[in-house]
Amino acid sequence: MNKVKNNRFELKDWTEPNGIFIMNIPIDWQYKNVIVQDFKDESPYSFEKYDNSIGCFQISCYPLSERGVNNNQPVQKNNSRISWLPHRMDGEGFNVRVFYAQVDDQFCMAKYIYSTKDQDNVAVKDELEKVEVVLDTFRLIPLKDRTLASNLKKYDNFLGSLIASFDLWQKALNNDSFIELVVITSNQIDAFLRLSIILHKQLEFATDDIEIEYLFQSDDEKGFMERKIYSDAYKLGIINDALNNELNDLYNQRNRVIHRYIISNIKTKDIFKIAYDYGVIAEKVRMILKSYEENQYGKEFGIYGRGFKSNYSITEEDRKRAFAMLNDKHLLKNLKRKL
Fold it and tell me: Does residue 82 have a pLDDT over 50?
């Protein structure tokens, strides 16, 4: 395949969950594995348009040590543009465009699958053009960098969830749902502090490393609870005595709201006051996080150390990428943003 120029559609990054490869995909493509029941977050990774899907793009990587090296094909270098070997597998009502490559320690295969009856459809031709662009952006990540790449993906997912929480916060505010406001705002404070802890440690040790246990918890893991986050932030000097005391006091009040609303004398009016106090504290903690982000600008390490500027203006493409993250988190029509 020759290098493909793209001037017609906007792209977003997608990183393989284990950090094996990264590629750019169209903003209007959705990753399906974590959405479709019984699909696992592993090869093959499937993508379709959010709306009016006419085909499915799949991409897989498997260790060459397991698949065996095909001596008739070159083994290409990691972190470089890949030359893909195209193939067709049409039949039984479906057309399948297949692309192969051996790269470093991986056998890579991509497919685009669509109905034979749609083979002359302009929409299919548009999607096949996108496939060429996606494959042109594909880069296999060097083995030594895969943990960081995987952690950065989890960081992006964490940010997407944090952004999505503000949609829920706004709906709760509009509906005077005070208990929801308490729950969501306490979650946001927890998220701000987790991010602050990571940025603090990156600054302290001048490193790119991300302590991922602060950002990601699998179903079978016992993660860090809020009280530990408060404690860690306090020990690191991120929050002072007064803010630490306020957070712990609000935490106790929140538990009273959630667990003892019916069996205690707490009134709904009291919950409104708790929600308000949480909002005030959330802004204080958000500003602490903002200061850590700005302290990393211009550094040669850390999440914000390269390519970020304090006077950066958000572009329309940035907004669309954020909307795609929201859609992937919510998966609800009433919260879906137009891309």
Answer: yes
